[in-house]
Amino acid sequence: MNGQNIIIKSLLFLYFFLSISSCQKKSINYILYYQKVNEIDSIYRLANNPKLAAEEYKKFFEAGEYEPKNQERINEYETYITLADRYNIDFGGKESLKKLILLDAQHGGNCKKYFPLFKKYGVDSLYVKDQIANWKKSLNQTLIDSFTIAMKRDPLGRPFDSAVSMPNVRKNAKLLIWTFNKYGYPTPQKMGTTGHDNTFFAMPTFLTHMVEAKEYPFIKSKLYEYIKSGDCLPRDYALMVDVDAFLYDKEGLYRFAPGVSTDSAKINRNRKSIGLPSLKHTAALRRDFFKTIDQ
Fold first, then answer.
1. What pLDDT digit, counting tens, does each position of 57-89 carry?
2. What is 37-74 written as a DSSP string?
3. Euclidean distance between CA atoms 157 and 168, whole angstroms
4. 249, 258 contact by CB (below 8 A)
5. Distance of CA 151 to the CA centre of its chain
C-alpha cells in the first residue's frame, strides 16, 4: 500500500511539475531578434558576404521563434528572400512570400516591386491585391479615427504657442495610455500608416512630443515593454528618449538627437541593448538606402 502511495505521489508531483513548466515558457524578447538580425545584416552589408547572410537568415527564420519583421532600411525579411532567391537557397516559397505581402502592406507598400518574384514562385498578383484588401478591412477603425484626430492636433501651436500645444499633448498622452490599456501598442498592423484624409500616422514625431507630458515616465516604461514584445520599433523609442535628453541638457543615449553626447563605444552599447545597429552599421544602412532612391 505504501508503495502505491509513493507511486501516486510521484505521478502527482510529475504532473504538477510539467504543468508549471508549460506555464513558464520563455517569453519572446524581440530585442534578441533585432540583435540577431543586426548581426546577420552586418555579415551582408559590412563583411560583404551575402550568401552567408542568406544562409544565416534561413536558419534564424526557420527556427520559428519569432514572427519576422521587415524594418525600414534594414528590410530583413525582404533581404533574406531576395538573397536566398539569388543563391538558390530554399526560403519557403509561396508561404514565405505570403508573409512578405502583409509586412510590406503594413508599412504602406503595395508589393509591386515584388511582382516579378511573386510570379516566379506562382503567387498571382490578384491574390496579392486580395490579401492587402482583406487586411485593410480588418483594421481597427476606432484606432484609425482616434489617431487621425490626434495626428491633426499634434502640430498645432508648435513651436511657439504652448497655450495651444500643451493641452493637445495632454489629450494625446491620455489617448496613448487609453490605447495601451485597451488595444496595446498602436501598430501599423492594427491601424495602418494613414488615417482619414490621408493623414499620416507619424508615430516617431508624435512620441517625441510625449516627453512634454507628465505621463512621460510611464509612457517610456511601457514603450520599452513594447520593444520587447515586438510592437514598438527601437528607433522610435530611442528618438523619444534622446529628444528628452536634448530638451533637458541630459546625456544622449543613442545619438538620435543633437546635444550632450558620449563616446561612440558607449553609444553602441546603448544601441545594442535595445536592438539598434551600431553607428557604423547605421551609416551603411543609410548609404544603401539613399543609393536605392537615386537609382
1. 999 999 999 999 999 899 999 999 999 999 999
2. HHHHHHHHHTS--HHHHHHHHHHHHHT-SS-----TTT
3. 9
4. no
5. 20
∠ CA(22), CA(233), CA(256), 5° rounding?
140
pLDDT at residue 105 greater than cutoff 80:
yes
CA nearest 25: which of 65, 61, 69? 65
Q: What is the mean pLDDT of the chain?
A: 91
Q: Whole-model pTM? A: 0.89
List of long-range contacts for 135-144, beta carbons under 8 Å, 24+ apart:
135/102, 135/105, 135/106, 136/105, 136/192, 139/190, 139/191, 139/192, 140/183, 140/190, 140/191, 142/183, 143/179, 143/183, 143/186, 143/190, 143/191, 144/191, 144/192, 144/195, 144/196
Biggest CA pair distance of the chain: 85
Domain boundaries, the chain: 30-137, 141-289
Instruction: Return the residue matching grid coordinates 534622446.
Output: 242
Cell 494625446 sits on residue:
172
Q: How far apart are CA 38 and CA 59, in angstroms?
A: 15
> Cα–Cα distance between 259 and 248 in angstroms, integer?
9
pLDDT for res 261:
73
Short-list 255, 254, 103, 111, CA closest to 188: 103
Residues 6+ apart with CB under 8 A from 273: 31
